[in-house]
Amino acid sequence: MKIGDFEIGGNKGVFIIAELSANHNGSKEIAIESIRAAKRAGADAIKLQTYTPDTITLDAKADDFKLNQGTIWDGMYLYDLYKKAYTPWEWHEEFFKVAKEEGLVCFSSPFDPTAVDLLENLNTPAYKIASFEITDIPLIELVASKGKPVIISTGIAGAEDIELALEACRRMGNNDIALLKCTSQYPAPVEDANMVMVKDLAERYNVISGLSDHTMGTTVPMVATALGAKIIEKHFILDKSVGGPDASFSLDEEEFSQMVKSVREAEKAIGIIDYKLTEKQKRGRDFSRSLYVVEDIKEGDVLTVNNIRSIRPGFGMHPKHLKQVLGEKAKADISKGTALSFDHILKS
To answer: Going by CATH, does the domain composed of 2-51+86-270 fall within 3.40.50.720?
Structure first.
C-alpha cells in the first residue's frame, strides 16, 4: 500500500500520522503551525477531519443527542461539540499546501459524501474511516470507489462490522485496506489497549494493521510497533495550553517527538529472524566456555576433572568433549592455562 510517496510496510518503517482533529481550537494560524510542528516532531503525515456540525449530526436538544457515557464531553449536545471542534472546509486547501511544503502526507477522515467531494478536489492520497463510521457502509463504498488506500479504525467494531467494511471496500474493487486497532475512549486506559489485536487483525483479515491511539503517553505505540503495526496514529497538539476538545489526550511536540523516537528504536530492536552469528557475536564467543588445563599435567598423566575444566575464555575445545577426554592420557607435558586440544591427547 502506497500513500503519497510512502510505501506502507516498506523500508521507511512505521507510517506515523499526527491527527490534528480539533486541536487548532478554531484558529487557522494555530493549525498551520501545528502542521509544521508535526513535521519537526517526526510525523510522516498530518490527518484532518472533514465535517461540519450539519453534515455529522442534527441540531437537536433531545436526549439521544446528548453525551452521557463517561466521556470528557459529557453534558454537551453533539451539535455543539462538533460546532466547536470542526475544521472549516475553506481551510483545507491551505493545509494540504502547507503539508506538501513540509514534506508531509496530508489526508482526512470524511464523514459524508460532500466531504469526499471536497477531498477528491484536493487530490487526497488516501482516506481514513473513523471508528464510529465503520458501520456507514454507503460512505465506505463511496470512499473505496475512489481507488485510494482506505484506513479504517475499529474502535467500536465487532468481527461482523469489520467484515462488512472490508466487503464494502472489496466490492468496489479496492484492496488497499488497513485496519487500525483503536480503543474509543478519550483518553483510553492502557489496560484497555489490547495490543495483541494488531497482529490478529493483519493475520485474520490479510490486511496491513496498525494503531489509532487515545492512551496517554508513548508506551502503547511502542508495544504496537513490536507486535507488527505498520501505521500509528496519535492526536497531536501544538501546545496543550491552546485547549480544545481533544487537548487532554493529545501529545505536544516534545511528547510526539519522544513517541517517534521510541517507535523508531523499537523498529531497530525488532530486527530480523536470523540464526547466523554476526561478526560481533563471533568475537563475543571469545568469552564463552571451553576446555582448559587447570593444573600442570605431565606426559602420561590421566586427564581428570581436577586438571581439566570448562572455563572462560573460549579458545579451547568445546565443552561438549569433556566426557570424551576424561580418562585419556596426556601426549606430553601441558602447562596450567593451556587451551586443550586433541593434539594434547594420546590416541587410545
So the answer is: no
Domain boundaries, the chain: 2-51+86-270, 279-344
Joined together, the cell numbers standing for residue 260 give 517517534
Contacts of 160 (CB under 8 A, 6+ apart): none
d(CA 315, CA 264): 38
For 181-192, the pLDDT digits (tens) are 998 777 788 898
Range 152-175 average pLDDT: 96
The DSSP annotation for 306-326 comes to: TTEEEESSSSSB-GGGHHHHT
CATH class name, domain 279-344: alpha beta
All three cell numbers of 266, joined, read 523499537
Euclidean distance between CA atoms 217 and 228, whole angstroms: 19
Interval 197-225 mean pLDDT: 94
Query: What are the CA-CA distances from residue 242 to residues 39, 247, 251 (Å)?
Result: 19, 8, 12
Closest CA to 179 of 138, 141, 233: 233
- CB within 8 A of 299, min separation 6: which ones? 330, 331, 332, 333
pTM for the predicted model, two decimal places: 0.86
Looking at residue 188, its pLDDT comes to 81
Grid cell digits, residue 159 = 468481527
